[in-house]
Automatic annotation (TrEMBL):
PANTHER family, A to Z: AMINO ACID PERMEASE, AMINO ACID TRANSPORTER (EUROFUNG)-RELATED
Annotated transmembrane regions: 21-41, 53-74
Protein name: Uncharacterized protein
Keyword line: Membrane, Transmembrane, Transmembrane helix
Organism: Lithohypha guttulata
Matching InterPro entries: APC_YAT (IPR050524)
Length: 115
């Protein structure tokens, strides 16, 4: 959006902490990287166990392998930010009248604040 000069305020759905949304994405990425790294910590620090290591970390190479296979098989390319189509279907979304959601209890009030 920054590459195309579109302000975040034009989005129909946005994070309540709009100015912090790029930072929150990086925080989530670092958080999940830490989780993946420490996923099998007991097999590394508690004495080397190659079966446990494979079981704990096999998902990482599988993810990258499937990603690369998909890129090669479907011959897709990475779309630069300046060329991404952000307007197809936007007029239909802007025409929808979204009802105001009123929370019925404390749990919904917290959830509506988060979401």
């Amino acid at each position: 959006m920054k590459a195309q000069g579109i302000p975040r305020s034009d989005l129909p759905f946005r994070v309540k902490a709009n100015d912090k949304s790029p930072i929150l994405g990086w925080v989530a990425g670092v958080f999940f990287a830490i989780i993946i790294f420490f996923n099998g910590w007991d097999t590394i620090a508690g004495g080397w166990n190659y079966q446990g290591f494979l079981t704990d970390y096999i998902g990482v190479p599988i993810f990258f392998a499937l990603y690369l296979i998909g890129k090669i098989f479907f011959k897709s390319r990475w779309v630069p930010s300046s060329e991404a189509d952000l307007f197809t279907g936007k007029a239909a979304l802007d025409a929808i009248e979204w009802p105001e959601r009123v929370p019925r209890n404390m749990l919904e009030r917290v959830w509506f604040w988060i979401a």
